[in-house]
Amino acid sequence: xxxxxxxxxxxxxxxxxxxxxxxxxxxxxxxxxxxxxxxxxxxxxxxxxxxxxxxxxxxxxxxxxxxxxxxxxxxxxxxxxx
Length: 82
Description:
Elements: H1 7-21, H2 23-34, H3 40-44, H4 54-66, H5 71-81
Helix pairs in contact: 1-2
């Protein structure tokens, strides 16, 4: 059987990379993009990678805009998700 990878697992791998390469940058990065309200973990963490579709991404961006997130912050989050 194939193993289903979640966005949470990929974010954990990204964190591990940051902690080795640039630990101080992870805390700022996580604060802005990954953790907390509107963070990637809150919305996407439970999703399997295959479920992150263009339509799902559009719905998320629309929701973020409605929640008052700036275009720059949304773009950073989308870049991380890519």
